[in-house]
Design brief:
alpha+beta, 2 domains, 3-stranded antiparallel sheet
Length: 524
């Protein structure tokens, strides 16, 4: 059995060359016994069948693998191993072999990636195997064969690996990092190992699947798409707010119950943004693409999702715009206004809430997440009937006199102002309408629309089937009501899509914001 395993091990080694008589004459004739220990760790969540470790001499002058191996097993959660061997050279290759790995969280099988490390036993007898040592080992052999000393080759190869992950090149002691350690190098190993695991899970069943390796000539990933794929994985982890759940999952399987601060080592792998370090604390950047994009902020060396607390009132408006003023005589509130394409519009969402004076507001207006401070900052959310100052019965039926709102309709707007009809549809498309608050937009128009979310009553596949309103997508999008009906239970709304506005049909029961427009004489 041992002989069979050795043959299998040798077959897996890239570049393994059997010795011939000519090479044998250059071998050292001395034999000696060694004992090497450490941990072999592919990842937190991975369990493998027949997980063994083996050691072989790399014989000078060309450092080819000797035609014999000695094996042991990888034990326990930590990945501990101890291997005793009789060798003819202190310069060795240590490798693992297993049939396949299983992701115990997602219950999916993934193709194996054997771990490797090249080591000079005169310099270290405690050696860890991980993804970093595996990516570095072919580079090390390449440099040594071209005249570098072991230590120079090790440091250079490890630095090349770090550069491919856009990491600082000062954490090069790969052979002593552990997934369960507490140092900076351990934390970096956790981050890279987790992302590589996801890389293999994504690609293990795809046509053209290949190992993640670094080309010795270009010193870059052999797979030209690898950098972008790894970057997209990090994007998903961060923008989907998976960091907390990942940390909890890692801590649950850690034998110590603790995991090093890996979070800050994720962002360097996201190639579209700089690393989150001391130089750019508080800096904000867009993560993701299209409708899935969100704002992240660099805080305490970790990218996290930005919240309203990361912004101030000064971020709402464009300082280069000369705003007008609207005073609502009903409650004394003051709003900024802006003129765009001949129309004067509120540059803030309405906050009016006097249900005693305006009875149709009862039960039809809300603050986001029922927090009054959100109303003060973002304005108030209304159902369509509340905006129009109609009885809520019209949430599920057409108006009795639909023609009455074909012109301007005051609704709950202040005197001299009205619920927008089609004014937003006619806005120039070359301007940014999104505020700088919770966005990275320029707000060049001055309209200052904040992605302050919305509310909905939706349960079991139907609207208005829930007694309570739910809130969603704060910091991502929002919508503004218009006066136009679309169907018996739908009305036209204006949706914030990135920096622009677009029309959508929205269920009347849902809760949106209101921007009133100053009355004007319609053009013929």
């Amino acid at each position: 059995m041992k002989k069979i395993l050795c043959m299998m091990c040798l077959a897996l080694l890239v570049g393994c060359i059997f010795d011939n008589d000519e090479k044998a004459s250059s071998r050292k004739k001395m034999w000696w016994s060694v004992e090497v220990s450490g941990v072999a760790q592919r990842g937190f969540f991975m369990e493998a069948e027949n997980n063994i470790i083996y050691i072989e001499s790399l014989l000078q002058p060309d450092y080819t693998v000797e035609d014999r191996c000695q094996t042991s097993s990888v034990e326990g959660v930590m990945g501990d191993y101890t291997i005793k061997a009789t060798l003819r050279d202190n310069f060795v290759m240590i490798s693992t072999y297993s049939q396949e790995y299983v992701d115990t969280i997602k219950q999916r099988k993934t193709k194996d990636m054997n771990l490797n490390v090249v080591v000079d036993l005169d310099q270290m007898d405690t050696v860890n195997l991980n993804y970093l040592t595996t990516l570095a080992h072919e580079l090390m052999l390449h440099y040594i064969r071209n005249g570098s000393s072991y230590e120079d080759a090790r440091l250079k190869a490890n630095a090349v690996v770090l550069k491919n992950f856009h990491m600082s090149t000062d954490l090069t002691d790969f052979e002593h990092y552990s997934l369960y350690g507490t140092g900076a190098g351990d934390a970096m190993l956790v981050a890279i190992s987790y992302v590589i695991e996801q890389y293999y899970l994504k690609h293990s069943h795809e046509w053209g699947w290949k190992n993640l390796t670094i080309d010795t000539l270009t010193e870059t990933f052999a797979d030209s798409n690898a950098t972008q794929v790894l970057s997209s994985i990090v994007d998903e982890i961060i923008s989907n707010e998976a960091l907390d759940s990942i940390r909890k999952a890692l801590e649950a399987v850690s034998p110590t119950g603790k995991v090093a601060a890996f979070e800050k080592y994720l962002s360097p792998m996201y190639v579209d943004v700089p690393p989150c370090d001391a130089a750019n604390q508080g800096w904000k950047n867009l993560f993701g693409r299209g409708h899935n994009s969100i704002i992240m902020v660099c805080s305490d060396s970790v990218w996290r999702r930005a919240t309203k607390d990361d912004y101030g009132v000064k971020d709402i408006f464009n300082p280069n715009i000369e705003y007008g003023t609207l005073v609502d005589s009903r409650d004394g509130r003051t709003y900024k206004t802006v003129e765009i394409d001949g129309h004067v519009m509120m540059a803030e969402n309405l906050k009016y809430a006097d249900s005693a004076a305006t009875e149709n507001l009862k039960g039809q207006n809300w603050c986001y997440e029922d927090d009054e401070s959100n109303c003060e900052l973002f304005g108030r959310l209304y159902s369509w009937s509340a905006v129009m100052d109609f009885d809520p019965v019209y949430l599920d039926s057409y108006l009795d006199s639909f023609a009455d709102v074909q012109s301007v309709w005051q609704g709950i707007c202040p005197e001299g102002w009205h619920v927008p009809k089609d004014e937003f549809n006619k806005l120039p498309s070359a301007k940014s309408y999104a505020s700088g608050f919770m966005t990275v937009e320029t707000n060049s128009s001055g309209l200052s629309v904040i992605p302050a979310g919305y509310g909905y009553k939706y349960k079991g596949g139907t609207y208005n089937s829930s007694e309570t309103i739910e809130y969603a997508e704060m910091g991502e999008t929002t919508f503004l009501w218009t006066s136009e009906e679309r169907r018996v239970d739908y009305a036209q709304a204006i949706y914030l899509d990135g920096k622009d506005l677009e029309g959508i049909s929205e269920n009347k029961h849902n809760a949106g914001y209101l921007r009133c427009v100053k009355d004007y004489e319609p053009k013929d």
